[in-house]
Specification:
Distance between the termini: 60 Å
Strand content: under 5%
Shape: elongated
Number of strands: 0
Structural class: mainly alpha
Largest sheet: none
Helix content: 55-70%
Number of helices: 2
Order of helices and strands: HH
């Protein structure tokens, strides 16, 4: 049994044309193109969260926070 669900999205015409050209160039369906784009977006979001966690820990150790800026940054 198929577990995938159909989703409808709305795109501006210029973005649709770009997506169609990319799918054609890469020999993919539009569904494959958008699934891959979403997978990459999710992975990059997780990488960004990990980077923030590491840099905030380093900043905290150095007495630097991102919560109010710093006086020297004005």
């Amino acid at each position: 049994m198929r577990t995938a669900k159909t989703v409808s999205i709305t795109l501006p015409p210029d973005l649709l044309v770009k997506a169609q050209k990319l799918a054609l160039r890469e020999h993919r369906t539009m569904s494959e193109l958008f699934r891959e784009a979403l997978r990459r977006y999710i992975a990059r979001d997780a990488e960004w969260d990990a980077l923030l966690k590491r840099t905030r820990a380093t900043g905290k150790a150095l007495g630097i926070t991102d919560e109010g800026g710093c006086g020297a940054c004005l």
